[in-house]
Amino acid sequence: MLSGAAVEPGLIAAADTFRKRTGSNVVIAFATTPEMRRLVGAGETFDVAIAPPALLDELAKSAKVDGTVRVLLGRVGVGVVIRDGAPMPDISTIEALKRAVLDADCVVYNRASSGLYVERLLQRLGLAEQIQSKTKRYTGTDMIEPLITGKGNEIGFMPVAQILNCRGRGLRLVGPLPADIQHYTTYAAAPAPKSEGGQAFVHFLGTSEARDIFVSAGVEQQPSA
What is the third-level CATH fold of 76-181? Predict the structure, then answer.
């Protein structure tokens, strides 16, 4: 299975349930959306792809996934994270968030879907150039350890579900981005063509049991239209 890292906590829990129920061997590789695109282009094979719908559309066009089978898992917003024991910043408004970013010793975010949005957001807020010298970018979840072991007033941006998964491991959720600038990445699952195991797992992901697992891990359900 090839998956975006933002849904990692829910996916691991769902895979464990599926494994115990079916006896299937489930192996998951996590990657950013750009990295998933590169891996598939280089010939990487999989039974299930879990990614934003736009990438699944690309994979369906090239027959890497079954374009007729897709399960929507939910959406993940962007949150602000600090290490345990660090000063709690005020991010209740856009102006408060801007002050928190300017006051931080280091600003940390990734190069995945959420990080690409944060990059554009900081530019839009007029902060990018001001904090350039103290900004650190990482590939996916590689940013977690530097945040945990930080010594100063670091502030990070990560998918909320990933932050919640780090509770008790040294990181603390300050809160989601203010509603006016919040950004959600939607994730869905699709099986590879003719993969019976992939079809079975994607079917399981469409059950209410799997949905509840993802909700408990911080993956929000899409609001009704």
Answer: D-Maltodextrin-Binding Protein; domain 2 (3.40.190)
pLDDT band at 225 (very low <50, low <70, confident <90, very high): low
Task: Map residue 110 onto helix, strand or coil.
Answer: strand
Share of the chain above pLDDT 90, in %: 81
- Give the span between the Cα atoms of 70 and 81, in whole angstroms: 32
Which DSSP category does 220 fall into?
B
Q: Check if the beta carbon of residue 84 is closer than 8 Å to that of residue 218.
A: no
Q: CA-based angle 157:210:79, to the nearest 5?
A: 10
Where in the sequence of the chain do the CATH 3.40.190.10 domains occur?
2-74+186-216, 76-181
Per the confidence metrics, is the pTM higher than 0.85? no
Does the domain at 2-74+186-216 match CATH 3.40.710.10? Answer given as no
Query: pLDDT by residue (tens digit) across 93-112?
Result: 999 999 999 999 999 999 88
- Residue 38: partners with Cβ closer than 8 Å, 6 or more residues away: none
Type of residue found at 138: Y
